Amino acid sequence: MGFGGNLRTVSLPDIFQLIFSTKKTGVLVISKGDSRKDIYFRGGFTIYATSTEEKDLFGNLLLKMGRISKADLDKVLAEKKDGKKIGAALVEMRLFTREEIIDCLRMQIEEIIYGLFGWKDGEFSFIEGKAPPPETIQTELNPMNIIMEGTRRIDEWVELQKILPPDEAVLELEKNPLLNTDHIKLSRNDIIVMACIGSGKKMGDVLRESILDQFLTSKSLANLMAQGLVKVGKVVVAKKVEVDESEELVRLLANIYRHNFGIILASLKDKLGVKGERIYYETFQERKSEYPLLADHMHGRDGEIDFDLLLKLAKSLPKEVWVHRLIANFTDLMTDYLMTIQKYLGNKLYQRTLSQIKIQTHNDLTSRKQLAMKYGLEDEFARTLRGGNE
């Protein structure tokens, strides 16, 4: 039996957990705009994946890894028969062994899935029983291990945001770097990113145009900056219509907590039904005196936030006061909710819920990157979610 929905309401880890725990066989199709990713499963394990995004294509992955030259790849693409997958063609032409293709295929599957961690929304559907196209070379991966690595990347991403410049900053290759040849260490990814920067390019353009995903591109940029090979030039800021920053900040915080409280409530209801909803409500009621800013602005039954009242409160107080107090109130409540998950559902589901929250928080902060950096929201949430692990 198939199922479907949108990533706005059902998280990626939840989907993979369902497929893995029920040992399903079929294909998970996730699409957004012109992008589509198909992930195939057999008995709950990931065996194959395809993507319409150019950076995810198998040939481009081989180029990125330095496993094939552009000339050889073009020759393979020109000579392979219609319908034959490139991996099978490479084995048939004796350019790769089957084992080498399987190793590369594992990496392709992982990269296709890691790319989904940046999707804030997207339609998904699981078609039960559908197998990969004929003649494909397949492997077998535990999807939950991939999800765990994706969550780890998000933690590392938070640290990278502290180092990297804003999207509007121009990056330039240092013409006369002060090199210590004993310590210079460049990976193939670093060289790819340097070539992408060329004679100068804005940070945001490098992230968009690199054949690597944003995480790997960011890691290479941080390394190149640390070694003095890339410098940050002027910041080119496009003229924007003035907006009420207080309103934007309150909206960002309200969205983050609405999404995260929704994840917690869904976890409790999924496992405990009506009892889970009652536990969620009672957690808020029993402790709401400790969250004075939230008592009149949040509905404990469903976690909905009265944005208009919250904004009115924010504007009545000095910004440096309400930002700190609002974040402190919200993070304290989220910590109590997480402890409730651990108490009633156990550590395994607690860790799973925490991973979902990390992913959702990362996506929300990325949507308003500059605002989040200005008020140190990445650090604030990193401390809260790290504390939840202790």
Structural write-up:
With 390 residues, the chain is of the alpha+beta class. The longest helix has 28 residues, at 245-272. It is built from 16 helices and 8 strands. The protein has 3 domains: 3-156, no CATH class; 164-235, Orthogonal Bundle (Arc Repressor Mutant, subunit A); 245-387, no CATH class. It has helices spanning 12-21, 58-65, 70-79, 86-92, 98-116, 143-163, 188-197, 203-209, 214-226, 245-272, 274-287, 307-316, 319-345, 347-367, 369-374, 377-387, and strands at 3-6, 26-32, 35-42, 45-51, 123-128, 169-173, 201-202, 230-235. Strands 1-5-2-3-4 form a 5-stranded antiparallel sheet.
Layout: helices, strands, pairs:
Layout: E1 3-6, H1 12-21, E2 26-32, E3 35-42, E4 45-51, H2 58-65, H3 70-79, H4 86-92, H5 98-116, E5 123-128, H6 143-163, E6 169-173, H7 188-197, E7 201-202, H8 203-209, H9 214-226, E8 230-235, H10 245-272, H11 274-287, H12 307-316, H13 319-345, H14 347-367, H15 369-374, H16 377-387
Antiparallel strand pairs: 1-5, 2-3, 2-5, 3-4, 6-7, 6-8
